[in-house]
Amino acid sequence: MAEQDLTRELKMVTDSAQPVCQRGGKSFLNLSSNNYLGLAGHPQLADAMGQAMSRGAGSPSSRLIVGHEEETDQLESELANWQSSEAALVFGNGYMANVGVLSALLRREDAVFSDRLNHASIVDGIRLSGATHFRYRHRDLDHLEICLKKADEKGTRRKLIVTDAVFSMDGDVAPLQDMVYLKERYGAALFVDEAHSVGVIGVQGKGLAHELGIADQVDLHMGTFSKAFGVYGAYVTGKREWIRYLIHTARSFIYTTALPPVVISAIRRSLQLVQQRSVLRQSLSGKCHYFREGLSQAGFRLTDSTTPIIPIMLGDSSRTLEFSQRLAERGILAVAIRPPTVPNGEARIRFSLMANHREEDLREAIRTIVQIGYECKVIG
Ligand SMILES: Cc1ncc(COP(=O)(O)O)c(C=O)c1O
User: Fold this and answer.
1) Which of 93, 187, 188, 265 has its CA 20 to 30 A from that of 336?
2) What pLDDT is recorded for position 380?
3) Cα-to-centroid distance, 277 and ligand 1 (Å)
4) CA 171, CA 307: separation in Å to the nearest integer?
5) Whose CA is nearest to atom 10 of ligand 1?
6) Helix axes 141-153, 176-185, angle to 10 degrees
7) What CA–CA distance (Å, rounded) separates 1 from 125?
8) What is the percent of the chain where pLDDT is above 70?
């Protein structure tokens, strides 16, 4: 790995969720966090956690052993209401939700259709399930349709299409409306991972499927509380009987300790903020537009991103590492994303923005990134 510039280091940082963080006694503009709405440091979340502390710092067991507190029930009904779904189930985190749902729903006789750039937790859930895995080309629905036809010819028992709503390393969005058409045409189910879209996209931050008006046709929705919500944990929503089935079969739900009361309380408070604070979404969207335009006009190769995840494509891993090191030397924290997180030859610097970034800091950051772009001969 070292020979290929693929080793990684764990680094210590202070104020990791803030727009400006500290590392090794130096301040950095944080362009790497998923704390999109800036809620991770919100005093109301700290207040909610403080109030719940009297109920203990941890949970006693899996929910199926001792049971759960009233607040968990309240949270799950609030989530179901917010998503206009029949029911919701809270998981330990997004990774566990994806692994649990996919390994519970799919068997060897089934087929699963997954975008080539879906998150690693989706890939792992599929591997665990043993179902036939069709990886279709990124956002390529002609290819998806060919795969659906192939599965029918093989006499597959059941079919499930799974996709990220916003792709975590590219920042572009899935063509969900056309996917709904295909799922209906081929009698498949659809599972959408809204990890990077809830809180950020749509009225009350309900996510991409709601924004496109097709939420009802998605069989299962998943979202995480670790990004725009600024807390930790995840949820799945859908029909009551699907959720009941998951309670009985999702091993990453059954065989693990429930989230602690302090975390459940913070998530509930964050859910209120996410629904109310459309002003944060507007501010974030304006900043993303400005940042994307600045980099694109300077000549960087961007993806089709329309979200706060804004990568510049550099291709080669060592060049990308050098770019990231130069950024760090000039006070900007933006990590080099290299294989295996992205395909070979597609290394990149992935910037992500927050609603509470200061406009003058972003303006200065663009200037620095462009300068380094010239120095590294990425732009001409
Ligand atoms: C698309 C996607 N799904 C799932 C996850 C996992 O969520 P969590 O961090 O809550 O485990 C992530 C990121 O971490 C993600 O980007």
Assistant:
1) 93
2) 86
3) 23
4) 6
5) 94
6) 20
7) 26
8) 100
Q: Which CATH architecture has domain 43-276?
A: 3-Layer(aba) Sandwich (3.40)
Q: Whose CA is nearest to atom 5 of ligand 1?
A: 94
Both tokens assigned to 338: 């290299």
Q: Give residue 97 CA to ligand 1 midpoint distance, Å.
A: 9
Domains of the chain, by residue range, sit at 20-30+278-375, 43-276
Residue 282 token pair? 């507007």
d(Cα 337, Cα 320) in Å, to the nearest integer?
8
Report the C-alpha gap between 193 and 98 in whole angstroms.
Answer: 8
Q: Per the CATH hierarchy, to which homologous superfamily does domain 20-30+278-375 belong?
A: Aspartate Aminotransferase, domain 1 (3.90.1150.10)
Instruction: Pick left, alpha or beta for residue 200 (phi over 0 → left; psi -120 to 50 → alpha; otherwise beta).
Output: alpha
| Contact (CB, 8 A) for 376 and 327 | no
Amino acid, res. 350: R
CA distances from 279 to 54, 220, 274, 355, 361 (A): 33, 28, 10, 9, 20
Q: Which amino acid is at 112?
A: V
Amino acid sitting at position 53: M
Distance CA 238, CA 215 (A): 10
Q: How far is the CA of 226 from the centre of ligand 1 (A)?
A: 8
- Write out residues with Cβ below 6 Å of ligand 1: 93-95, 98, 119, 121, 164, 168, 193, 195-196, 224, 226, 234
311 within 8 A of 351, measured Cβ to Cβ: yes
pLDDT in tens, 298-337: 999 999 999 999 999 999 999 999 999 999 999 999 989 9
Q: In what order do the strands lie in the sheet with 234-238?
A: 87-91, 234-238, 220-224, 189-193, 159-164, 111-115, 132-136
Looking at residue 95, what is its pLDDT?
A: 98
Residue 5 has pLDDT above 80, yes or no: no
Our mutation pick for probing the ligand 1 site, out of 119, 232, 270, counting the most ligand atoms within 8 A of Cβ, is: 119
User: Of all protein residues, whose CA lies closest to atom 16 belonging to ligand 1?
Assistant: 168
AA letter at 369: I
